[in-house]
Specification:
Elements: H1 9-12, H2 17-27, E1 41-46, H3 58-71, E2 75-80, H4 97-110, E3 115-120, H5 125-134, E4 140-144, E5 151-153, E6 156-158, H6 162-173, H7 178-183, H8 185-188, H9 200-211, H10 226-245, H11 249-252, H12 255-268, H13 273-285, H14 291-298, E7 302-303, H15 315-321, H16 323-331, H17 347-352, E8 370-372, E9 376-380, E10 383-389, E11 400-408, H18 411-417, E12 430-433, H19 454-457, E13 465-468, E14 480-485, E15 502-506, E16 511-514, H20 518-530, H21 540-548
Parallel strand pairs: 1-2, 1-3, 3-4, 11-12, 12-13, 13-14
Antiparallel strand pairs: 5-6, 7-8, 9-10, 10-14, 11-15, 15-16
Helix pairs in contact: 3-10, 4-5, 5-13, 9-12, 12-14, 12-16
């Protein structure tokens, strides 16, 4: 077979003025003549940043990728991309996921590279990088940051995020002193890497492996584990061969691959955020995928992984128990075994080699950790385009519930009143938060798991039904209905809810209903439209985002970014 001409040859393979310019400026970095002999040029897209502590070790990981690229006869070139620190960026890192995707897409397309290695890990870096790479569609492979080590506090394990929410509520209820709460801080995050729970970062790393876009083991090896460096080196070797074989991202990320990702998502008790990210990625690739797929496919698989927030263990334990290959083996005939991976092996071949070393952490289909749960997709007059709930993280008794709404018009309204002793609320109430969707915040922040009223916490209440157009951290838990679409800011029915309205949540029946007659809602809608003010943002990225962002049921991509523009650039720079 004749190898397809390298894309980089257009810049480095010409013996004219343009070729001289491209080669000469690269030689200023110390590259010798023979690296421009027609070898594949591999871009290493790095989201390293000291403000994104999940990714702070990726400079070191990049060096190991480069080793592998050199060994396989390629030329590695590292380039930066915007880094989105989940815990540091305001108003929310999600506001900038699509901006990262744009940067990655244009950086890949505009530069003379033949394949790309994506280095990321923190929640929005992985989906943002993949979305951008998908719209260019070169050979692509991922190396994730890896999870941090288990947190430790006074003889027990601490889980990132999950224990933050629990301990914080203990302080607000008076069961834990502020001094004791603060003393847990140093032991919570003991190493670099992503959250050690099955939060969004670990979920996305797991789904990248389920999609077949990384080498086996990538999802669970701790960030400080030397085996992650070895995996990075092997990844560098593999991407060179992928370029030679012209194995592009779209070759791997097929409908079958996405189905595997959804099945794995249910098995691991993955973050609700993954629904939005996979929908957006599928939209870039032209793969037919909907919210309903998560519900329909997820029903086939029970909870197989015993990790916080749906269980008790952490990512380090999951690694030692066998990781994703062990889970895929348990799926048996449910797994789309023929789906190909970047390694060249099919998922069924990888699953056949999987082995479980700890049944406390990884269950079986016959003896699962929990019942079939996955993500429930709700429909009804309160969410015409859908909403989601994660049943494995909720109090079972609250999954079917009817109660009066206690409405907060904004996050500021919520913060001002939630601990007011005169707030008319009890354990049967349903907390409703508006204005926190893609357009409304903007950026759809992780505030959906609203902290409970202090006066109920002191009575021992630890869960209530909560409904919003926001997201929640993958580390969070509770009977929390999220991603209500259309959002309030877009004129969805959520905007019309008033305190005292009865709301029906029927999780098993997948229903979410506002029990108010249509005539009354029409009157309220007219009043809502009349009260609309001027937009809060008049320039910059926030305005572009608000003007063009899609709703949660479509992945919150920007409307003009859905799809691809290929890798071709017709014109020269000089």
């Amino acid at each position: 077979m004749t190898q397809k001409p390298l894309r980089s040859a257009h810049s480095y393979g010409k013996f004219d003025r343009d070729g001289l310019i491209h080669r000469s400026w690269m030689k200023s970095t110390g590259l010798p003549e023979d690296v421009f002999d027609g070898r594949p040029v591999i871009g290493i897209c790095n989201t390293w940043s000291e403000l994104t502590t999940c990714n702070v070790h990726l400079r070191d990981i990049a060096e190991h990728v480069k080793r592998g690229v050199w060994e396989a006869g390629g030329l590695p070139v590292e380039f930066p991309a915007m880094s989105l620190g989940e815990t540091q960026m305001r108003p929310t890192a999600m506001l900038f996921r699509n901006l990262l995707a744009m940067e990655v897409e244009e950086s890949i397309r505009g530069n003379p590279i033949d394949g790309v290695v994506l280095l990321g890990g923190c929640d929005k870096t992985t989906p943002g990088q993949l979305m951008g790479a998908a719209s260019v569609n070169l050979p692509t492979i991922v190396v994730s940051s890896g999870p941090m080590l288990n947190g430790k506090f006074r003889g027990r394990d601490l889980g990132s995020g999950t224990d933050v929410w629990k301990l914080s509520e203990d302080v607000r209820s008076g069961e834990l002193s502020l001094a004791d709460f603060m003393s847990a801080e140093a032991g919570m995050s003991r190493s670099h890497g992503t959250c050690n729970t099955m939060g969004t970062a670990s979920t996305m790393a797991s789904l990248v492996e389920a999609l077949g876009l990384c080498l086996s083991g990538n999802a669970v090896l701790p960030g400080v584990d030397s085996r992650r460096k070895a995996l990075a080196q092997m990844t560098g070797r593999r991407i060179v061969q992928m370029v030679k074989d012209d194995i592009r991202l779209s070759t791997i990320a097929t409908r079958a691959a996405f189905e595997n990702a959804i099945l794995i998502h249910a098995a691991i008790g993955g973050s609700t955020n993954a629904v939005i990210h996979l929908l957006a990625l599928a939209g870039r690739l032209g793969v037919a995928l909907s919210q309903d797929d998560f519900d329909v496919l997820g029903r086939q698989v029970p909870l197989l992984v015993n990790l916080m927030p749906s269980g008790k263990y952490l990512m380090e334990d999951f690694c030692y128990a066998g990781g994703l290959p062990a889970v895929m083996k348990e799926l048996g005939p449910v797994l789309r075994a023929d789906a190909v991976t970047v390694s060249g092996a099919a998922q069924g071949e990888i699953a056949a080699l999987g082995e479980c070393y700890n049944r406390e952490v990884i269950g079986t289909m016959d003896q699962p950790i929990g019942p079939s749960s996955g993500i429930w997709v709700l429909k009804g007059n309160l969410c015409p385009l859908g909403a989601v709930i994660k049943p494995s993280a909720a109090t079972p008794a609250l999954l079917t519930h009817t109660g009066p709404a206690v409405v907060f018009e904004s996050i500021e309204d919520y913060k001002a009143r939630i601990d007011d002793p005169d707030l008319d609320v009890d354990e049967n109430s349903i907390l409703v938060l508006k204005g926190c969707g893609p357009k409304g915040y903007p950026g759809m922040p992780e505030v959906g798991n609203m902290a409970l009223p202090a006066k109920l916490l002191v009575k021992g209440v630890r869960d209530m039904v909560r409904i919003s157009d926001a997201r929640m951290s993958g580390t969070a838990f509770g009977a929390v209905v999220l991603h209500v679409a259309p959002e309030a800011e877009a004129g969805g029915p959520l905007a019309l809810v008033r305190t005292g309205d009865q709301i029906l949540l029927d999780g098993p029946g997948r229903r979410l209903e506002l029990l108010v007659d249509e005539a009354e809602l029409a009157t309220r809608r007219a009043a809502w439209n009349a009260a609309r003010g001027r937009p809060a943002y008049s320039r910059g990225w926030a305005k572009l985002y608000i003007d063009t962002v899609l709703q949660a049921d479509q992945g919150c991509d920007l409307d003009f970014l859905v799809g691809a523009s290929s890798a071709e650039v017709a014109r020269e720079s000089h």
